[in-house]
């Protein structure tokens, strides 16, 4: 799999001792309304204007029941409400804008990533025994803090290059330079000092991201000048992902989605290019759109992307965050 990003300040070792409070749909709805000074009647009018067919007949009594958790709208309607909030604010998850990466991680269903996002992959997510692994002994950190950084980067580069035509090859020196750049997110998951998964992403400037997605710029042509800083809008481009098992994979995706939500005012789009058929199963669950196909040396490479708002306003993501009562780990 070949696109995403992170702030150096958020690169802490991950060990959850308390899952924290849950932001169910009822709490999220009320938090948004109160934060933006919207009355229940305002919300009724706004939703009806946004989608008159889906919200026909909506009244303040129903909104009140939603906020008190007496009833809740169907999943598809929850997604449309989230999309309405996005239209009004320009943010993907506006009521979670003030949450840090660590706080956001505690709100997300970890097991849900394993069951809803990663369970279809057999090439990228292997079957290394995981019965003894749990949240307490799996740790996520940035690769720059590992004393084995070069060895891990070399393996990642070899795996990537072996699965892609030369147009997409990268060198160890490039990998090292990108990993040390504070704009980028190079995460590893470890179990008792054994690396069990990796997820590498680049924070690209929007115009560079578009060129990469349309294959008018090769990844090995990317330089430090092509990365977006923390103070400017950027995009999230996955360049490498592999895991020994589902638990390790879900830990990385948990951190990644928490990062996207916590930095939603600075991330425009997410994307990936891949030559692996199995990777497309994960991409399908991430709800990214197919952009273009490139063929070289008998290898087909496809690019996929979506705006951050599109990527987060999906039934899968809503179930992971706003419907935690359905989370198998709860």
The CATH topology of the largest domain turns out to be: Aminopeptidase
Question: Roughly what fraction of the amino acids lie in strands?
Answer: 15-25%
CATH class value of the largest domain: Alpha Beta
Provide the structure class. alpha+beta
What does this 3D model show about the protein?
The longest helix is centred in the C-terminal third of the chain and has 17 residues, at 246-262. With 330 residues, the protein is of the alpha+beta class. The two termini are 31 Å apart. It is globular and about 60 Å long. It contains 13 helices and seven strands. It has a seven-stranded mixed β-sheet with strand order 1-2-3-4-5-7-6. It folds into two domains: 8-20 and 98-326, 3-Layer(aba) Sandwich (Aminopeptidase); 25-89, 434 Repressor (Amino-terminal Domain) (Orthogonal Bundle), CATH 1.10.260.
Write the layout of secondary structure elements.
Layout: H1 25-35, H2 40-50, H3 60-68, H4 75-89, H5 101-107, H6 110-117, E1 138-142, H7 149-162, H8 172-180, E2 185-191, E3 194-204, H9 206-213, E4 234-243, H10 246-262, E5 267-274, H11 279-286, E6 289-296, E7 299-307, H12 308-312, H13 315-321
Parallel strand pairs: 4-5
Antiparallel strand pairs: 1-2, 2-3, 3-4, 5-7, 6-7
Helix pairs in contact: 5-10, 6-10
């Amino acid at each position: 799999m070949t696109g995403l990003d992170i702030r150096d300040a958020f690169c802490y070792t991950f060990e959850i001792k308390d899952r924290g409070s849950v932001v169910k749909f009822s709490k999220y709805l009320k938090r948004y309304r109160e934060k933006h000074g919207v009355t229940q009647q305002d919300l009724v009018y706004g939703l009806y204007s946004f989608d008159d067919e889906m919200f026909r007949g909506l009244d303040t009594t129903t909104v009140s029941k939603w906020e008190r958790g007496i009833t809740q709208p169907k999943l598809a309607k929850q997604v449309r409400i989230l999309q309405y909030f996005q239209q009004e604010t320009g943010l993907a998850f506006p009521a979670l804008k003030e949450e840090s990466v660590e706080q956001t991680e505690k709100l997300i269903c970890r097991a849900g990533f394993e069951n809803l996002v990663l369970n279809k992959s057999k090439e990228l997510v292997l079957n290394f025994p995981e019965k003894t692994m749990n949240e307490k002994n799996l740790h996520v950190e940035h690769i720059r803090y590992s004393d084995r950084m070069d060895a891990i980067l070399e393996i990642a580069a070899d795996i990537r290059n072996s699965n892609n035509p030369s147009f997409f090859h990268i060198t160890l020196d490039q990998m090292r330079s990108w990993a040390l750049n504070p704009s980028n997110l190079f995460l590893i998951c470890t179990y008792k000092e054994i690396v069990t998964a990796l997820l590498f992403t680049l924070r690209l400037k929007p115009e560079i991201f578009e060129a990469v997605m349309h294959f008018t710029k090769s990844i090995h042509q990317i330089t430090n000048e092509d990365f977006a800083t923390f103070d400017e809008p950027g995009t999230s481009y996955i360049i490498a992902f592999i895991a020994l098992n589902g638990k390790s994979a879900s830990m990385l995706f948990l951190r990644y989605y928490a990062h996207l939500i916590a930095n939603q005012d600075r991330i425009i789009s997410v994307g990936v290019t891949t030559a692996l058929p199995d990777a497309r199963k994960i991409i399908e669950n991430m709800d990214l759109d197919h952009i273009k196909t490139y063929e070289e040396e008998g290898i087909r490479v496809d690019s996929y992307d979506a705006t951050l708002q599109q990527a987060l306003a999906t039934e899968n993501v809503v179930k992971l965050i706003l419907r935690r009562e359905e989370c198998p780990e709860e």
